[in-house]
Structures are given as structure tokens and as C-alpha cells.
């Protein structure tokens, strides 16, 4: 589907764009191997983003409970593999696949938005709060490098056991994410 800004976005009840990629831990991640399981596919900003690292930290708390319900998670970052591997925090994300997509090929395939306005608004209204929260949790915070963009707006997708997208959440800002309760409810359903 094409939205009002002309950006390709994913439709509900359509197959998830299939990928076969290598994650930062050198494991082959083939989305078709996840048939029979539910999956949260999450697209984050750069490795030093306090909004994204706080979200990952919160999702990690639910990993084992979701896995017990046959639900997996796959995370994408727009950072290079080497940058992600230089972070102790990002190395601890394993066994969850963490895919580096600095060229944003899969960001485009999933319709992840770039918006300077949404990013600026989020930074203006809540950046310092989020930095404080991330620092308190010992999460990495640093400026962007390489092709990382301040304009990237996160997105999350819930895929069912047949590879069909059942929930799409294109964020309206850097703090806007799918509710954890909604993810748990999807895993339970």
C-alpha cells in the first residue's frame, strides 16, 4: 500500500516481506524458518539512540515469557555490524537476532518512515528524559555515525504463524511503540 506521503507501507493480512539475512552474530536468519511461530519484527534507529535502546531493554525483559508462547523477536538497527558489536549491550541481545541494515534496504521494504519533523518533536519534548532513563539503566547513548539518520522513525510488526502481518505499528514519534500488553496478548491469542 502507498500512504498519503507516497511511502510504501505494509498492509494487514498480507505476507511479511521475506528475508534471508545474516545477523551480527553471523547466524543466517531466514524469515521462512519462523513458520509455526509468531514473530515481533522491530525496526530501530541507531545503536546510540536512547529511545530505541530503552525499548530493546524493555522487550528483553519479556523475551523468555514470549518464547515460551512460541513467539520470537527479530530486531533491525540502521547501524553497521561493527558498531553494534562494539557495544556490550547489543552483544547481550543474543539469542534474539539483531540485523544490521545500514543501507536501510529492509527499512524501505517494510515502509519505515523518515521524518525530520517527528524526530525533532520527540527530541524537543522528551530527549533529556529518555537520556536520563537510558543512563540510569546503563544503556549506550552516543551520536550517530556513518549513514545513520536522525530522521528514522521506528516501526514494529506482529507476524502470525503463517507469515502474515497481523499488526502494524508505524510510530508517530520516537517514544510511540506498540504496547507490551498488546504484544503479550498477540502471543497468547
Q: What would you say about this model in short?
A:
This protein is an alpha/beta fold and 189 residues long. It is 32% helix and 17% strand.
Estimated radius of gyration: 16 Å
The CATH homologous superfamily is termed Glutaredoxin
How many domain modules? 1
Helix content: 25-40%
Biggest sheet, strands in spatial order?
5-4-3-6-7
Category by helix and strand content:
alpha/beta
CATH topology group: Glutaredoxin
Overall, the morphology is globular
Tell me the total number of β-strands.
7
Low-confidence stretches: none
Family: Belongs to the peroxiredoxin family. BCP/PrxQ subfamily.
Protein name: thioredoxin-dependent peroxiredoxin
InterPro entries: AhpC/TSA, Peroxiredoxin_BCP/PrxQ, Thioredoxin-like_sf, Thioredoxin_domain
Pfam families: AhpC-TSA
Tell me what you see in this structure.
- With 189 residues, the protein is an alpha/beta fold.
- It has one domain: 3-Layer(aba) Sandwich (Glutaredoxin).
- The protein has seven helices and seven strands, in the order βββααβααβααββα.
- The strands form two sheets. Strands 5-4-3-6-7 form a five-stranded mixed sheet.
- The longest helix has 21 residues.
- The relative contact order is 0.23.
- One of its GO terms (molecular function) is thioredoxin peroxidase activity.
- It holds the Pfam family AhpC-TSA.
- One of its GO terms (biological process) is cellular response to oxidative stress.
- It catalyses: a hydroperoxide + [thioredoxin]-dithiol = an alcohol + [thioredoxin]-disulfide + H2O.
- Keywords: Antioxidant, Disulfide bond, Oxidoreductase, Peroxidase, Redox-active center.
Amino acid at each position: 500500500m502507498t500512504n498519503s506521503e507516497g511511502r510504501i507501507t505494509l498492509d494487514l493480512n498480507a505476507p511479511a516481506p521475506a528475508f534471508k539475512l545474516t545477523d551480527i552474530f553471523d547466524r543466517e536468519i531466514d524469515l521462512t524458518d519462523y513458520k509455526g511461530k509468531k514473530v515481533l519484527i522491530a525496526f530501530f534507529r541507531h545503536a546510540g539512540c536512547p529511545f530505541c535502546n530503552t525499548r530493546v531493554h524493555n522487550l528483553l525483559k519479556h523475551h523468555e515469557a514470549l518464547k515460551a508462547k512460541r513467539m520470537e523477536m527479530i530486531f533491525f538497527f540502521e547501524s553497521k555490524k561493527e558498531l553494534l558489536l562494539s557495544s556490550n549491550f547489543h552483544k547481550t541481545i543474543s539469542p534474539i537476532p539483531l540485523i544490521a541494515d545500514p543501507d536501510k534496504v529492509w527499512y524501505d521494504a517494510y515502509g519505515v518512515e523518515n521524518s525530520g519533523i517527528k524526530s525533532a518533536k520527540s527530541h524537543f519534548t522528551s530527549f533529556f528524559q529518555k537520556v536520563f532513563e537510558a543512563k540510569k539503566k546503563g544503556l549506550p547513548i552516543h551520536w550517530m555515525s556513518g549513514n545513520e539518520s536522525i530522521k528514522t522513525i521506528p516501526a514494529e510488526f506482529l507476524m502470525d504463524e503463517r507469515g502474515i502481518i497481523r499488526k502494524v505499528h508505524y510510530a508517530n514519534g520516537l517514544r510511540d511503540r506498540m504496547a507490551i500488553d498488546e504484544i503479550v496478548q498477540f502471543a497468547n491469542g
